[in-house]
Request: fold
Amino acid sequence: MDYIKEIQFNNGLIPAIVQEECTGEVLMLAYMNEESFKKTLETKTTWFWSRSRKKLWNKGETSGHFQYVKKISFDCDGDTILLQVEQVGAACHTGNKSCFYRDIL
Reply:
């Protein structure tokens, strides 16, 4: 896990973009801390840090809408993670498939 040294958890967190593997659709943006990142690697399901609740959460734990991780990449600066997943059900807590359902332009 030498690559973890290249990942920058600024203020303890890193933005994590979640993308559906088969379509390329961006589903959501959440934040990970080092613990949630490691749990994601171990379980192959997404774990995030809730900034509002100040605790870890496993996406789908209560809704059943799990995200099964197929690939994890990080950007050139090491300050953003991209997770490609198989999404079960809706990714957004509103019931929409993606959190990005409100178009501006």
